[in-house]
Amino acid sequence: MNTLNIGLVGYGFMGRTHSNAFLQAPRFFDLPFKPVLKAVAARNEDRVKTFAANWGYESYETDWRKLIDRKDIDVIDIASPNDTHREIAIAAARAGKMVMCEKPLGRTAAEAETMVAAVESAGVPNTVWYNYRRVPAVTMIKQLVDEGKLGRIFHYRAKFLQDWTISKELPQGGEGLWRLDVAVAGSGVTGDLLAHNIDTALWLNGPITEVTAMTETFIKERKHNITGKVQAVGIDDASAFLCRFENGSLAMFEATRYARGHKALYTLEINGEHASAFWDLHDLHRLQYFDHRDEGRVRGWRNIHITDADQPYMKHWWVPGLQIGYEHTFTHQFADFLEAAAKGKSLPPTFRDGLATDYVTDAVLKSGRTRQWEKVAGAPATVA
Amino acid sequence: MNTLNIGLVGYGFMGRTHSNAFLQAPRFFDLPFKPVLKAVAARNEDRVKTFAANWGYESYETDWRKLIDRKDIDVIDIASPNDTHREIAIAAARAGKMVMCEKPLGRTAAEAETMVAAVESAGVPNTVWYNYRRVPAVTMIKQLVDEGKLGRIFHYRAKFLQDWTISKELPQGGEGLWRLDVAVAGSGVTGDLLAHNIDTALWLNGPITEVTAMTETFIKERKHNITGKVQAVGIDDASAFLCRFENGSLAMFEATRYARGHKALYTLEINGEHASAFWDLHDLHRLQYFDHRDEGRVRGWRNIHITDADQPYMKHWWVPGLQIGYEHTFTHQFADFLEAAAKGKSLPPTFRDGLATDYVTDAVLKSGRTRQWEKVAGAPATVA
Amino acid sequence: MNTLNIGLVGYGFMGRTHSNAFLQAPRFFDLPFKPVLKAVAARNEDRVKTFAANWGYESYETDWRKLIDRKDIDVIDIASPNDTHREIAIAAARAGKMVMCEKPLGRTAAEAETMVAAVESAGVPNTVWYNYRRVPAVTMIKQLVDEGKLGRIFHYRAKFLQDWTISKELPQGGEGLWRLDVAVAGSGVTGDLLAHNIDTALWLNGPITEVTAMTETFIKERKHNITGKVQAVGIDDASAFLCRFENGSLAMFEATRYARGHKALYTLEINGEHASAFWDLHDLHRLQYFDHRDEGRVRGWRNIHITDADQPYMKHWWVPGLQIGYEHTFTHQFADFLEAAAKGKSLPPTFRDGLATDYVTDAVLKSGRTRQWEKVAGAPATVA
Amino acid sequence: MNTLNIGLVGYGFMGRTHSNAFLQAPRFFDLPFKPVLKAVAARNEDRVKTFAANWGYESYETDWRKLIDRKDIDVIDIASPNDTHREIAIAAARAGKMVMCEKPLGRTAAEAETMVAAVESAGVPNTVWYNYRRVPAVTMIKQLVDEGKLGRIFHYRAKFLQDWTISKELPQGGEGLWRLDVAVAGSGVTGDLLAHNIDTALWLNGPITEVTAMTETFIKERKHNITGKVQAVGIDDASAFLCRFENGSLAMFEATRYARGHKALYTLEINGEHASAFWDLHDLHRLQYFDHRDEGRVRGWRNIHITDADQPYMKHWWVPGLQIGYEHTFTHQFADFLEAAAKGKSLPPTFRDGLATDYVTDAVLKSGRTRQWEKVAGAPATVA
Fold first, then answer.
1. pLDDT tens for each residue of C9-54
2. At CB < 8 Å, which residues of chain C contact B?
3. CA A175, CA A9: separation in Å to the nearest integer?
4. Domain C132-375 sits in CATH 3.30.420.40
5. Helix residue spans in D95-208 (DSSP H)
6. Which of A151, C291, D142, D234 could potentially form a cystine with C275 if both were Cys, beta carbons 3.0 to 4.6 Å apart?
7. Interface pTM, i.e. ipTM
8. Maximal CA-CA distance, chain B
9. Cβ contact B308–A297 (<8 Å)
10. Does the pLDDT value for residue B118 go beyond 80?
11. Which CATH superfamily is domain D3-131 in?
12. Is the pTM of this model over 0.95?
């Protein structure tokens, strides 16, 4: 079996989830390649060295450019902060490497467009880590929608609620807190959380045509960890929008980091003529499904424990009733990426799909400023 | 339409639920009789007078015997403490009155046997207020079982958990606390709570053949409200048993007033070859139903909101989604009793059914003492 | 005790819930008046006669004007379709009657303004039947908010999801279906469902300043039951909006009759700096409450079974663990109305409060047409 | 850092979970040893070779005795069927190897006693894979109990419900089905499922003194996969018992493979004077906790999402809100075992703890036969 040599950029939270996926996938899936954790790149030598040792990377670099220059790297995986995605991805594509990139693809659609152009002109397999598509319960919803089980769709609603930034004492910027620094992150919850909701929605329900949005920054100033000064907060703490999909359905989306009591509550619901489905991240292995075609007297929401072999991805894991964790959304995506890459193909969500989400988040942020309905720029999703 | 004149004995918690049923039933059901709240009897004149005024009873008595002597009373409803059931019921039957009696029928099966003999020899319509049979969700389970939807039954489990007697400071005996006084109540949770679980189980799953039980009194002494003295506690605070049903299924039952966090958690579950059902009193309008014949991928427990017109009793109430309260279990039973009485029939659970439950509670209490498996005396349930 | 003579207009679903409240309140509450079901008015004599007999009204009229002319009526209760509210309420007020009116107060704020003017110039006690304020769990949220337990509010979200109009075969108009006829109802889900969400929100979270909305009619034509012809559907099938409250919080509201699987799912959630609360109508006796001040390790959403005597209204009912039904929201409001009326006061939600909700629904419907953010006309809520 | 060379026996379901733990622990925990997957032993050479390759074992053996003879193995991990535990464990202990053994320790307490004697006389660190102790939510209950948060314990209840053997067509014996073959498994659900419930209970609530039990085999004959013949089924399909703990609390336990609708529903609940806790395996990252000391009005079961850094084991994983899977109960136990082993100590549940559980399961099976209350042989739990 051929090896596939991986070069990872970044060693934060996402660096860990990706590395774990690289190690776990071969134990549970028949892969067309043997993945090799060849090298990891990050600026702080002490820390990258420790990270490499912990996860079993054969080597490390302190400059990602060196990683791209190396001939022994087949795929570049970008797990560094948002402001680095574009430059690294384009360089990797130009060097003929496959590219896996954390979400959001670009801080703006303009950034993302150049990234799409780069991977498509280089013809390299690519994917964006919108990992929630590969929660087994979510993949199951996709199956049900594609089979027509829901019928005409009337409504879609999704939210992503957190509560970790409510304290005024929390600083912004730097290690672990770059998500609060607009220069690095590009936006607040719109790019960090709503982007996940949007990617799944585009996949399940097709293109969004227009949006009207409302954004807010509740805490206006925070100390910046790098400058040491109290500075204006540039990110959106909360972001919500109404929209219409091309298929005629109506939708509501909301993300916030000020919803006390919710740690990482991504919920989605889709209502069709015949059936509806609901999922939430706090119970990720469960699917709620309602089928109006059930006999009326005993019709109800079915609470489905997605742990059986005939449910998506689950034949690779344990036995019925035993749930898997969050981290395996990445394991699944990596296994699927290798399958696609072996055929020279990209894996949805591709860079082009990531761009489609950026078009929506751009429209949301714009509408928050203009207080108008805004059209979403065209970005037909990749056909799987 | 003929009137049906009601004479109620007792004005406690059950006096209120029954009176409410007498008033509500005619508004929501087409009844064969017009119920008239003719008289209520209780010893304390001030209080019975107030009660009569509040609920619209035309008159009151301070001795239940006078109630039975009155020619203008058609049905005697017994809502007084357990130690009074036998004498009143027998007197009422002998006087040719219909009899409705609170549960448990007797403090012992021996008491209940004399009561059954009295109503049967008098030929008067009778019923015991095991009200939970007429929770719409529970009635629905009965329908599903009778239709064979569950197939061969393997397991039944029920419990009734409360936590209101944990404090050592709580006295026993007297107004509102007679349930803690063994002389009045007959037993503790076995007759008060387990009896409910057992009645439903006999109805849904047929006769119980033998039991092995464990009972306990956690707080050994309490002040008695009537004597004013600290006295030994004679009731069982907790009672649990294993048993076998005639149909070959196995079961577990438990009741306690020492399960911190549970107010009145009656739960039941029945597992059949093809399907299972679960219900709990804290969400009485919901039925959990699992049907193995559903397609495997989307098989799960259906959370059914029993509020639709095609679900038991619900066409009489509001619109889908709007739940009814606990008190209407009595309303339903009263409406059904009038239907039966109009045909000269008793309404299950009849006195004979109440006796069947007393046979089981007797066996449970005996097994708690003998530490042996005990056979349940025969008492074929009334055929509805 | 003085009597209070009630004259009801309308005998539909709401006529039943109100009548039931009139009968039930005196059994469970100490009231300052003895309510008397004096008369009911509706056009169809056979049906109004039957209705009167069923609920115990002493008399009936076939013209509501006669009801208002009668000297023996103290309070007019309007439970007829929306297009009749204004005329009846104004006539009742002019005749010096107290007025209780079903929601929405007017089909438009313009209608409602004239109604407010009438009751206020007549000085008659009034209330609007936004009954959900008096779900015990909802009243409890109000207590917690007023006590400052939640702290600064960041988010509010509410929805009302139904699925009963999805079929294209369902006609519009006439008996039981006037809610689908825009001429009678004024609007679709905006006035019927969202109005409930809005009234509760204004009560719990203060005034809404501006909204941006999206409305839709999924089924464009339906047979009209009165004309017999297929006609354009004028109501909104779905309506959603984003808004800002005066207190700086952000909110999302949605109502639809096309959410497959939901019968009458009114849900609300409010997120504060310190605590959050959630409630839904399908489990109306439960309150979900999260308090960040709980010890971190064991912090979680508390699932509170609102059935204890120290919880709003519950000391009037049964014992802990035993839930009450939907209908008692009306019982509570009626009992509270009598308390207020005995002091010559109106009961919130008053007509003025009902107008405040109409200002919001007007703004929502307008924004749906203009596709702009719309300001909400000022209508300070009644101080309780 | 020293290495710890592991020799695994068995490559079934448990062979996979253990191997995964060996690979995962060093990525997420600071371990005192570097674990090395040195060798795996099993009889079928093709399959053991494939297994070794998949999980990265350096070598394989087709006879477990060779594994024990190897000098380069520090710890023997027994993941083979129950009938092999005793011989392997004793041989390993005699060879001076540390021993980790799958549960149940022995098929009977008599077997287990010889195993305890062997490891204790050899003085080798040992543990039994009762993995559910290290579900973070379960470990949290242990913390709360040990801190006295629950107060005096009144009740304990646990069950383990499955439904995978209901079909009469399912054969017994051989690969993947040895759990149905009494000669190999020792018993049915008593040793397979109840043993888990019992181990956790002994840990949380102390010794059990006596039991009364009921066991059943619903399907009396099944085809045997090895002999090819239809043979009597020797295992218990269902097993339930009542018991008393040394601390005075009462308990109920039940396990079955005939509870339609439940895949692997291990639930436990413990009720104390002040607080109660509930957990179930189908939502393993959630803890239900009720604290009576909360303010009465807002007292309820707290639904705690055990994913925060201050909750057991969770600082090693992801971020709040992101759940981990079943497999990490093994990862935790392995990490803890290495900590203990580094100090020359055994890790609870030790072999002695495993024996304590075998004493209870023996008493349960005996009581099922004798239909008497049976005392549980003394086996004081290891002090951690």
1. 999 999 999 999 999 999 999 999 999 999 999 999 999 999 999 9
2. 13, 17, 19-20, 23-24, 26-27, 54-55, 162, 164, 262-265, 281-284, 286, 305, 307-308, 317-328
3. 15
4. no
5. 109-122, 136-146, 182-185, 189, 195-205
6. C291
7. 0.96
8. 66
9. yes
10. yes
11. NAD(P)-binding Rossmann-like Domain (3.40.50.720)
12. yes
